[in-house]
Amino acid sequence: MSQLRESVWWGRVLFATWLVFAITGWTQTTVLQPRILLTVTKSAGPTELSSSDIDLKEDGRTPHTVSVVKSRNLPLRVGIVIDESGSGRRAGLHGVIIQRTLDSAADWLQAHGGDGFLVGFNDQIIISTELVTDVAHLRNVMGQLRPIGGSAIRDAVVHAGQKFFSVAPEPKPSIRVILLVSDGYDNASNASEQRAVETAQREGVRVYPISFPSPEAAAGRHLLENIARHTGGQAFFPLTDKELATALKAIDDELSNSFLVSFASETRDGKFHSVKIRVRGVDGQGLRFMPAFASVKP
After folding, report:
1. Mean pLDDT per 10-residue segment, the chain (298 residues)
2. Contact criterion met (CB below 8 Å) for 158 and 122
3. For the whole model, what pTM was predicted?
4. Would you say 250 and 210 are in contact if contact means Cβ atoms under 8 Å apart?
5. Which of 7, 53, 206, 275 suits 96 as a labelling partner, its CA being 20 to 30 A distant?
6. How far is 22 from 179, CA to CA, in rounded Å?
7. What whole-number distance in Å separates Cα of residue 83 and Cα of residue 55?
């Protein structure tokens, strides 16, 4: 009888242990940490922030936990997406923008650490590299491409956004950025603008379009501005070397002086949810961030 009682007692202990592990383990794996890159423009105010300075709302609700990390303390993961359609052949700055963008990406990866990949496209994806830490490998690939054909910009943004999910995960939280070199004139995509935006939002990727002047650039401006706005980025339309240098310097400043804001979301439905952020003492016009995130089902 004593052996039976002891067996029952141990059975209850094991069950209780399993139950505690199951509950706590489930909680740890399903309490997600969406990460939103927050930029406070230089004219707006503070260069340092803590969680107490931030009022974040997820679908109008305040999450239990908010943390803030300065972006200069984090590595980068950069997708360089190059429009190699025929319009690039007629654009005087096309080659210069590509080379300067690669130069800047190399400098940023050296300063921050991290990695990057390159996607070249015309009316289809013509090159999509693996992750590298040395931009010299991307230069070698870029030297093999020639501008020709139509332009599937929305498809390329979808492809690049999905690469952030499909490649090896970052060893630590990183700043995710797409540098999109294109005039914005899309005449070959299957994907909609909404799908392009939502793919970037789902992976927490900020998009910085850099346009090259072409006969079609005016028609493409709206697409580039929309993708940038809905991912927290900024679109640039340089017409000269000086304006290009100013654009790349602005991106550099933002990558070093923004904040990665993480929060404990209670939503786990796989749908998109709104995010609004206010910073103490800063007017809303001085802030840029991705206005939505996609929760992930457990």
Report:
1. 47 42 40 81 80 95 92 96 86 89 97 96 95 94 83 98 92 95 97 98 97 94 98 97 97 94 90 95 90 88
2. no
3. 0.88
4. no
5. 206
6. 42
7. 39
Spatial separation of the C-alpha atoms in residues 199 and 203, rounded to whole Å:
7
How far is Cα 127 from Cα 289, in angstroms, rounded to an integer? 30
| Residue keyed to tokens 């070959």 | 188
| DSSP letter assigned to residue 167 | S
Whether residue 145 sits in one domain with residue 207: yes
Give the 3-state secondary structure of residue 129.
Answer: coil
Burial 193-226, CB ≥16 within 10 A → b, else e:
bebbbbbbbbbbbbbbbbbbbbebbeebbebbbb
Contacts 24+ apart (CB under 8 A), 18-21: none
Which residues span the domain enclosing 18? 1-30
- Domain harbouring 186, CATH code: 3.40.50.410
Question: What are the tokens at 170?
Answer: 């970052």
CB 116 within 8 A of CB 79: yes
